[in-house]
């Protein structure tokens, strides 16, 4: 199987690559020399985020925060998830509400969500796919915040 190389981050002399094929992995290069290799597993989406964050740190780039507005209706604790669509999720057991922070910076709260549904979403290999199966079009929701 031939390897496919995709650049997932590039700034100045630092580049992060996703290499697919018989030995899937992520590589971070500085000045064209491989500085770090992360073997890709089934958790590759989470690993991709970690590699991008490491490359940003090496390049001296400070990523913008996902959420710049904190609304009191949001879940107190937000958990990062493996998704290119959803950044974080949180749950209020008291109100049975799901807080979803999308990678776009938009924040929604969905009502009448069970703890089991939240846990399935949080632990899914793809939180985006789980969101579409569990929440989208099935639960009522409203937007509470948006990143500037």
List keywords for this structure.
148 residues; alpha+beta; 2 domains; five-stranded antiparallel sheet; 3 helices; 36% strand
Task: Give a summary of the structure in a few sentences.
22% of the residues lie in helices and 36% in strands.
Secondary-structure blueprint:
Elements: E1 4-11, E2 14-20, E3 25-30, E4 33-39, H1 44-59, E5 78-80, E6 86-92, E7 97-102, E8 107-110, H2 115-123, H3 127-134, E9 141-145
Antiparallel strand pairs: 1-2, 2-3, 3-4, 5-6, 6-7, 7-8, 8-9
Q: What does the main sheet amount to? A: 5 strands, antiparallel
Q: How many alpha or pi helices?
A: 3
Q: Tell me, what's the shape?
A: elongated
Mean pLDDT: 87
Order of helices and strands: EEEEHEEEEHHE
Number of strands: 9
Gyration radius from CA atoms, angstroms: 17 Å
Low-confidence residue ranges: none
Spatial arrangement of strands, main beta sheet? 5-6-7-8-9
Q: Quote the beta fraction.
A: 35-45%
How many angstroms separate the termini? 43 Å
What can you see in these coordinates?
- This protein is α+β, with helices and mostly antiparallel strands and 148 residues long.
- The protein has 2 domains: 56 residues; 68 residues, no CATH class.
- 22% of the residues lie in helices and 36% in strands.
- The protein has 3 helices and 9 strands, in the order E-E-E-E-H-E-E-E-E-H-H-E.
- The strands form 2 sheets. The chain has a 5-stranded antiparallel β-sheet with strand order 5-6-7-8-9, covered by helices on one side. It has a 4-stranded antiparallel β-sheet with strand order 1-2-3-4, covered by helices on one side.
- A hairpin with a 5-residue loop joins strand 5 and strand 6.
- Helix 2 packs antiparallel against helix 3.
- The longest helix has 16 residues.
- The chain is elongated and about 50 Å long.
- The relative contact order is 0.14.
- The mean pLDDT is 87.
